[in-house]
Design brief:
Blueprint lengths: L3 H16 L5 H13 L8 H13 L10 E3 L6 E5 H6 L4 H14 L4 H16 L10 H10 L9 H7 L3 E5 H4 L6
Helix pairs in contact: 1-6, 2-6, 6-7
């Protein structure tokens, strides 16, 4: 039986597996990694990162229907801000970039939280609540643990199908975006 914290996590996993049915093990791991650890990006050259961000916005392709703000941590501490709906709604890209940089500088991730998410995810799998394309998640998570939980990229199937375009933002900086 799950508690309220785990129930929130389960809702996030369910919404992502429904919205992105072609997810692979590394895609769902990337989701829980970001939810626990924040952005994997440490920005050493802010201007280079800004140029990449602006280029990404100018070359954005169509993607799935998705919310501008996507809570990815069960406790509301981390969000993915989906750039397409964010920009389409008229929000300021520079504010998003600034929040991304601040998150990278100031948010400290939690390996303990990531391990808890892994455990919850395995429970969901054991209950038969994950799609077949993620059925090997327990083995994948074991491998990630042995590698000390590295950051990973989205699968090519995920990238090709959904053209992911988002930034991971800590709740401490979400208010600056004036979107929630």
């Amino acid at each position: 039986m799950s508690n309220d914290r785990e129930s929130g996590f389960r809702r996030i996993i369910r919404s992502h597996t429904i919205r992105y049915p072609l997810m692979k093990c590394n895609d769902i791991y990337k989701l829980i990694y970001q939810a626990a650890m924040g952005s994997a990006h440490s920005i050493s050259r802010v201007e280079t990162a800004r140029e990449y961000f602006l280029e990404e916005i100018s070359n954005m392709s169509n993607g799935p229907g998705e919310p501008a703000v996507d809570t990815i941590a069960h406790d509301g501490s981390i969000f993915r801000i989906n750039i397409r709906p964010y920009v389409q709604a008229g929000f300021n890209p520079e504010k998003l970039f600034e929040a991304f940089v601040q998150t990278g500088k100031e948010y400290t991730g939690s390996t303990e939280k990531l391990e808890l998410y892994c455990w919850w995810l395995i429970r969901i799998k054991e209950e038969g609540q994950l799609p077949d394309n993620i059925r090997d998640i327990d083995q994948y998570l074991r491998e990630m643990s042995e590698l000390d939980y590295p950051a990973v990229h989205h699968s090519s199937e995920y990238r090709n199908a959904y053209s992911p375009s988002y930034r991971v933002i800590a709740s401490a900086f979400i208010r600056d975006l004036n979107i929630i």
